[in-house]
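Researcher: Re-running this chain for the archive, since the previous output was lost when a drive failed. Same request as before.
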Amino acid sequence: MYKLAIFDFDGTLVDSAPGIVTVMEQVALEYNFPMQIVDDWKNLIGVPLVKQMQTVLPDKNEEYWTQVAERYRAIYDQQTIEICPPFPFLKDMLAKLAKNDIKISIASSKRRHLIEEVLDHHNLLDYFCLVIGAQDVNNHKPHPESVQITLSNLNINYQEAVVIGDSTYDLEMARNANVDSIGVTTGIHTRQILHTAGPRFVADNLNEVLDLILNGRKI
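Model: Regenerated structure tokens:
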């Protein structure tokens, strides 16, 4: 059995992808971007926002990327709770992991205070012993820094931890940290895309994730 489950946030614990894409569409309309940009942009959920801007708007400069990112945040921050409804079975899963003495943490590219705001609103924050957000690392996913900081802070061996995420960025982060991973098909990336990042398992929902964590490497 694993001793630590490191979860991504968006698309993994909360069903935020539809709301995020809606905000992207609003920004695209305001800036007269072609809608093709949104198709490319949504595949970058899980990557820090300014890095997203650099990827989808490569012909622009840093000042422009920052301006668009700030406008996105201004819209998003007004409706964070509404955009981030918990997935079904989330609270039950967290309770059962805690009952089995498995530590639970988050490694996300979202700003930490937004994650904590959502978790606190749903009375879930106390289940998490550590939340690593965008401002807590110098190197973002798929770099392993978030996992390395987590393992160090919680005094957990890499063989005793598993990363759970809905994108290849999460799974590649785990692989780069030499940690097992479970992909979930609840976000933007399909099962086929998730498999390209070499997860140990791929699940379709949090109920399946719970069983995989509790059975550890025995499956």
